[in-house]
Specification:
The complex is a heterodimer of chains A (163) and B (392).
Chain A: H1 4-11, E1 24-30, E2 35-45, E3 51-61, H2 64-77, H3 82-86, H4 90-96, H5 105-125, H6 132-162
Antiparallel strand pairs in A: 1-2, 2-3
Helix pairs in contact in A: 1-2, 2-5, 4-5, 5-6
Chain B: H1 4-9, E1 14-15, H2 26-32, H3 34-37, H4 48-68, E2 75-78, H5 81-95, E3 101-105, H6 110-121, E4 125-129, H7 139-145, E5 150-154, H8 168-178, E6 181-185, E7 202-206, E8 217-221, H9 247-262, H10 264-283, E9 288-291, E10 301-306, H11 311-320, E11 323-324, H12 340-344, H13 349-352, E12 355-359, H14 366-385
Parallel strand pairs in B: 1-11, 3-4, 3-5, 5-6, 6-7
Antiparallel strand pairs in B: 2-8, 7-8, 9-10, 10-12
Classes of the chains: A alpha+beta (163), B alpha/beta (392).
Chain lengths: 163, 392
């Protein structure tokens, strides 16, 4: 069901763990759906003075696809300018992995979303202007997260009342 | 003929997913072989080819009936247990249209749950009984759920995910007292533990779970219980299931049942020993929990939850190490919800996503249990290291 590339990244994931001196963190997913990803970025300036993703790492609770997409998004984003990193889509992540089974496509969305959220957090912390595309995506992610929260709450309530 | 172990050892892998399916025993293959190309007749034909096939089918029916203390005419061969479950539930419903209520449980196999769900769409009422935190169904709850128009109670003999053995003797007794039919899905229990048929009216079995071939099973139906067939045609199986008999499959199922019943006590004792070792070993890993019953369990199934990691990753990491297991993880299901069985026993969501089922079989060895107990803690540690949820 998985491509060789997915299995390769799952077996030997790149940039896993927590960055000791990260600039910002993006947290997405919810344990209710079995996938949680925390993505850390360290923002540096390159020789032209542009802000780039100098280093990146992640911690993921999830399936094979979630771990492989975490690894892949970190590969794609590392060294990119913030502007270029913002433009990374989940389709690109899935494509670089040689595709994902349809039921696992949400895992690639998770990886690209986590990157988006980390950049959003970085710019917000720095009191900088948020590009409209980034802001729109942040709103969409926040909406999805709160929908999951509500679903999780419903589960938790059910667990409580049932015993 | 190569030995059973030798066949398995040709591939240096460890198979601990015997609740999904089992390797066909060499004795079973040997018993089946003549019926593919030598005695290939259609059991309905008059000539000698046909009669040889008929004899093989009827001998197999006798052998299988004997394992249950049943009469051969009470055995209906099917293409597996999904069909047997469908036949029991729909077949009885069609035969008794005035009765519109069915009682089952929240932890049945999908072949029962989804069959009942389909009947609900067609105007039936279905009661899905709760289970306790070990997956046990209270016979008193069955009694309470029975109504005037209850047709059938369908409760599995042993659960396929967590291995809990249900009190089917007592549940059957309640049904008998109330004059209600009792069906049990015995896919995981048949040939593994003794089953008392005294109060069971219908029972479903699949051959491939007990070292027999895939694509064959049977429904035991007590004499005098009318039901409508699902398959109409040439009137095979006394009109109860049309379709040319799967002669090699039926012969193989009988051979597999024969071995299973002969070796039942010894195999069960050995597999219970493995389960005990697995529980002791896995419990020593922090952040784990046994899913299942402390005393009432199938010998071959052990299910654990692992905090902070997701089940599919765990299964894939073990597979890399050559160890085959399975999970009730949600990640492959379209609605992203974990196994209905784990939710029904109240496993916390985070833990339900990290479940692992280890199911042993006749061919499992001590050394294989040693290996998984050695590999598993490392794999768990490795996955927890990349998880945001740390376990102290």
């Amino acid at each position: 069901m998985y491509t060789e590339k997915v299995i390769e990244h799952f077996r030997h994931p790149h940039h896993m763990g927590k960055l000791p001196d990260y600039s910002a963190i993006g947290k997405v997913g919810n344990v209710v759906c079995g996938d949680v990803m925390w993505l850390y970025i360290k923002v540096n300036k390159d020789e032209k003075g542009r802000e780039v993703i100098g280093d990146i790492s992640w911690e993921t609770f999830g399936c094979t696809a979630a771990i492989a997409t975490s690894s892949m998004v970190s590969d794609i984003a590392k060294g990119k300018t913030l502007e270029a990193a913002i433009a990374i889509t989940n389709r690109e992540v899935a494509k670089e992995l040689g595709g994902l089974p349809p039921v696992k496509m949400h895992c690639s969305a998770l990886a690209a979303d986590a990157l988006n959220e980390a950049i959003y957090a970085y710019l917000t912390q720095a009191g900088r202007e948020i590009p409209p595309a980034l802001a729109r995506r942040h709103e969409r992610i926040a909406e999805e997260m709160s929908a999951l929260e509500r679903r999780y709450q419903a589960f938790a309530d059910k667990e409580k009342t049932e015993g | 003929m190569v030995s059973f172990r030798a066949v398995i050892d040709m591939v240096k892998r460890i198979y601990l997913d015997n609740s999904a399916t089992t390797p066909v025993a060499p004795e079973v293959i040997e018993a089946m072989m003549p019926y593919f190309s030598g005695e290939y007749g259609n059991a309905s034909s008059l000539h000698s080819f046909g009669q040889a096939a008929r004899q093989a089918v009827e001998n197999s029916r006798k052998e299988i009936a004997a394992t249950l203390g049943a009469s051969p005419s009470e055995i209906v061969f099917t293409a597996g247990a999904t069909e047997a479950n469908n036949l029991a539930i729909k077949g009885l419903s069609f035969a008794h249209p005035e009765k519109r209520h069915i009682i089952t449980s929240k932890i049945e196999h999908h072949a029962v749950i989804h069959t009942c769900g389909w009947l609900e769409e067609h105007g039936y009422d279905v009661t899905y009984l709760d289970v306790d935190s070990s997956g046990w169904i209270d016979p008193a709850a069955v009694r309470e759920a029975i109504r005037e128009d209850t047709l059938l109670v369908s409760i599995m003999a042993g659960n396929n995910e967590i291995g809990t053995l249900e009190p089917i003797g007592e549940i059957g007794a309640v049904c008998r007292e109330k004059g209600i039919l009792f069906h049990t899905d015995a896919v995981q229990a048949y040939g593994k533990v003794p089953l008392s048929m005294e109060t069971i009216d219908l029972l479903s079995v699949s051959a491939h779970k007990l070292h027999g071939p895939k694509g064959v099973g049977f429904l035991h139906v007590r004499k005098g219980i009318p039901f409508i067939p699902l398959l109409h045609g040439g009137g095979h199986e006394r009109g109860r299931r049309s379709g040319t008999e799967n002669v090699p499959g039926i012969v193989g199922m009988a051979a597999a049942a024969d071995i299973a019943f002969q070796e039942m006590e010894a195999t069960a004792a050995r597999l219970r020993g493995y389960r005990k070792r697995l529980i002791a070993g896995i419990s020593s890993i922090p952040g784990t929990r046994l899913n299942g019953h402390e005393t009432k369990f199938l010998p071959h199934i052990t299910n654990f939850g692992f905090q902070g990691i997701e089940g599919e990753s765990l299964v894939m990491r073990l597979d890399e190490q050559g160890i085959a297991t399975s999970t009730g993880s949600a990640c492959s299901s379209p609605d992203l919800e974990p196994s209905h069985v784990l939710l029904a026993i109240g496993v916390p969501l985070a833990m339900a996503h990290g479940s692992l089922r280890i199911s042993t079989g006749r061919q499992t060895t001590d050394g294989e249990i040693d290996t998984i107990l050695e590999v598993l803690p490392r794999v768990v540690e490795d996955l927890r290291a990349i998880s945001p949820f740390k376990v102290s």
